[in-house]
Amino acid sequence: MLEGNRVSRISVRGFAVVSATAVTAVGSVVGVASGSVAQNNPDAEATAADTTLLADIPAGQQAQVQTASLTQQADAQAIAADASAKKDAEAAARKAAAETAIAKKAAAEQAVKDAKARAEAKAAAASRDSIRDSSSFPTQSSYSVGQIQAMARQMVASGQFQCFSNIVDHESSWNYRAVNASSGAYGLFQALPGSKMSSVGADWQTNPATQIKWGLNYMDSRYGSPCEAWSFWQANHWY
Asked: How far does the chain reach from its first CA to its final CA, in angstroms?
């Protein structure tokens, strides 16, 4: 050490002096070069045997050694930063891929729903087109149960017919002239009073097609559909 200066011996671990003018850094600086107060460092003493000391390197080469050490540290930091950036990029890519997959799944599910809705609308339109009005049936003096049911099948949407039929079965057993002896309810749907069916035709007493039209309108307006009306009937035994 220089006289009057309390400078610690600073170990440059792993440095090798290649020549009098060139020093290659293969390790890292372990201490501070000058201006610091000496501290006891057992580790430094223990490794003195395999360490090149900064003080032992010619003064003209010390700057090169320090520069090499700092360069090595900067390179290590750059490598660590690159690794961190790569890791972040991979995580972001996985997140983006997951979000894309979720969006594609949602779009596919919506496409299925839209296709189903279009198919149902098309089927409903086709069903409506195939439905006949009560006035399109020729009038007869009397009608069998089979004839009345055939009329109903042509006037009620196919998906609603069974519910419609269930109600008529319970109300009148398809007898368009059925009369309730105690209340006076009349016809296929036991309308009370029966005369309310005149809103769709003056021949409501003798034409089952007119009664079917009235009953269908009643179920649609009051419950939304024959099947909704049937659900209510099952719960209450009237509709």
From this structure: 111
